[in-house]
## 1
Amino acid sequence: MINRLTRRVYSKMGTALVYDEEMTRYKLLWIDPVCEIETPERLTVSHEALIRKGLAARCVSIPVQEATDENILLIHSKEYLEAVKKTPYMTLEDLKDFTLQYGDVYFHPNIYHCAKLAVGAAMQLIDAVMTGKVRNGMALVRPPGHHSMRSAANGFCVFNNVAIAAKYAQQNYGVQRVLIVDWDIHHGQGVQYAFEDDPSVLYFSWHRYEHQKFWPNLRESDYDCVGKDKGAGFNINVPWNKTGMQNSDYLAVFCHILLPVAYEFCPDLVLVCAGFDSAIGDPEGEMCATPDIFAHLTHLLMNLAGGKLCLILEGGYNLTSLSQSVCLAVQTLLGDPAPRPANLPGPCKSALESIHSVRSAHRKYWSCLKHAAEKPPSDVSTKCMEGGDSTVTEPNTAWPEPPVQVPPPLHTAAVLPEGVACPDRCSSLPQDPDSEEGFDGGAVSKLSSVTALAAGMKKNEIRNGLALVSDVSMAMTPLIWQLTALEQRVLAVWVGDTGVLSELPEDGKTLTVHFSNEAPKEHICRYYIPVCLQKGFMQAAFSLLLPLGYEYDPGLVLLARMPGSSMDESVWQQLVGLLQGLAGGHVLVLLQEGEKDLVGMTASSLSGRPAFSLGQLPAPLAEDVAALESLRHRLQTDWKLLQTSGEFNVT
Ligand code: X5A
Ligand code: ZN
């Protein structure tokens, strides 16, 4: 019942873009090499790029209103607010003096006005998402917020836009749990301080740290600061101790830390401190992740909280990489497929050490990390390792412009047996009347129709599709052979407790991951991976399937489900959603005819709806954890994205 209602509400929802040019009307008025990168062009260039690429026009544009004192006081002190209120009337000399009491920030006669708009913009995005006017959205704001504290401006930030927005959502919409993902390259210490003893707000931040040598040089930015009192475990810091981190490093942190914990936390709302100084070319971050990674980071968060995802701009100082990254994030919010992630060699050694440290610091708080190896007591590796990391590449300042991506004209196609009604939001593909012999008994869909669907995807005429067959098990092997004739690499995900896949290609043209609750009869090899679990499929999706999928980089994903599978329907729906981050969204789902509920929710996910929330995940079974860990361990040498610790700890 609730599902049906939610579905109805979602059916018209789009993406909000919250922006006001007024926020470009303040700038640095004196010479300060630290602050000169924070310019009005950061906003104008990003906004113009959204217009040029036709993205702004596809968003619901929301005008900005100033936040009130009451809103600002949700996080800041009365004294601080009163002090900032005086800045519009200050002389240049007074402004300089006022600025001096804070770190790495500047004031301007119009910044108080803009800061109120920035908070207001974040809150209006919350309003639009929480009232169901839109599904998700982005606020383009200046000044940024995540460094500002209760009584202090800091790091270009005046008021803490995202922290205020989180509190506002909790107070006005009965939101219980808020996840804040801070992918800006600086530690949002202001957000950490605001919620460090609060278990209702989970704050995750990765940040350039270099063993405390990088600004803001705080001891409390390290991985062992996990939150206080009741909030212990609800503050997750991932320190980057080297520059030059790449797409693999970011994805590995999402797969092995953020996503498992976030799904276990089960937020009602997800906010992103969306700074793009973590992208290549940024003078502050000096990292090497390319703008298209933000399409994936966004996509991976879009099925949490029933899709309620709000991105609020923080940093980003290379105008080219900033505007490209903003466009890719917004494009993904709008539902366009993410570009295929190129070149994922696995995380570097320094990233693996960070991942290992974080997982180990949080194992006592999160059941999904319970099995994480304990950190060696000496802890030498993270504290004293300097230099000699050959796997970190030199900071690179050139990267290709993200290709113009044209979403396929047909979003979701269906191949259906005669007499079966086409599910909502799908288009039925006409059956070829003189096609060859049926491959599932001849009574229903023909192999040629399914192959035609896949060929449509290959030509980018169709994004994804659903085929109903009378016998999934019989259809699978011939279909895989057909698909590998079309595509270089096919990722086949096989969900079923019965049935065997025999005689699959073994040349790497297909990678098969088989989820079941029965011990596999087949032999595990690099390209055939049986995953035998009782119920921990969601954890397996993050820590095994996604890393494998990303590293393999398929041109097509085939997802097939046997009737009577023990995989929960809502987990299945999440899987359909998450896998669309691969292969440019080209996912072909094979279902057994007659599984009515499944057909509906699969079609819904394929058509771009967020999956239903899973509820707070129960602790995984010990035997599932053991099975998953041993599998991950065995496969790590072939698949580097499965790693969660450096060689120093591999046993
Ligand atoms: C929002 C943001 C960075 C401040 C750097 C000061 N602030 N060195 O990215
Ligand atoms: Zn930043």
## 2
Amino acid sequence: MKILVTGGLGFIGSHTVVELQNEGFDVVVIDNLSNSSEEVLKGIVTITGKMPLFEQLDLREKKSVEDFFKRHNDINGVIHFAASKAVGESVGNPLLYYENNIASLIFLLQELSKQDKANFIFSSSCTVYGQAEEMPITEDAPVQQPMSPYGNTKKIGEEIINDVAKATNINAILLRYFNPIGSHPSAEIGELPIGVPQNLVPFITQTGFGLREELAVFGDDYPTPDGTCIRDYIHVVDLAKAHVIALQRLLNKKNTEKVETFNLGTGTGSSVLEVIRSFEKVSGKKLPYKIVPRREGDITEAYANTDKANNILGWKAQSSLDEAMESAWKWEQKIRS
Ligand code: UFG
């Protein structure tokens, strides 16, 4: 079985390539290297003993996408990660996000819609729920107007896939991630944020390593037990495994609808202060931090109801917050050494 992974050298993409190869799939990676590096291939080979086929390609170039599918007319499934993901950047440059995340999705779906049967896994986000009224969040929670162009690209992406699947031979699974963190336990691949990390965990590990002076905790006056925001932090390896299971579901024609949606989280919410404590526990280091005002656009809490993924997909997150933090810390030390 030959699987195309777009954005396969990125954070979640690279971990998914590893899990696919571990399960015996032949993987073709396309990536435009805008937020990743070919070095990641070395890590993938070290872990799996196998080099995926790699093509540097930009999905915004329609002709290149067409040519790619002419060269590879035997692809059994596509896992689509390639997208921009910085919430703040998307507010300043919305067109970049609509072009990167929507135009490329359309070109990909245009090619897949020419096939007799196509299987498509889409990287979506819990951001589509906004601040949900009820915790934990089920897949039936209403989708809300996103707070950022980035979030909107995920909402629109889901809508496009729903419409296209109805009219074509494409079957799809939308995976709504909560907060992916950590790295492969081997520390051969991991998250590589460019510049100052916007996300909590890479900021913590960089601060722990001494690259940043202190962590700014965005607000301690939220209506939560310790006043800081609550999220559902999921180990990226657990997340990667869910993609393989979702793909197998489509390949084995086990899906009951043309488009199915699953939350991918642990089901447990952790506050920012709990994440800091977890880091301190696994690293044995004291993390310098200060409380600063709230960050605009942050929601109070989001954690997943995982019943649907557990019962229908047959997948459950295995790693604890501590294990995920430990892997993130190991990776940070490795890339700085
Ligand atoms: N936080 C800090 N200090 C920091 C960074 C983050 O206190 O320096 C806090 C945030 O306020 C938030 C929590 O840590 O409470 C997590 O923040 P992240 O930026 O790591 O993650 P978000 O939940 O804000 O965003 C993530 C993804 C987005 C996605 C969103 C959906 O990064 O892509 O979840 O809710 F859109």
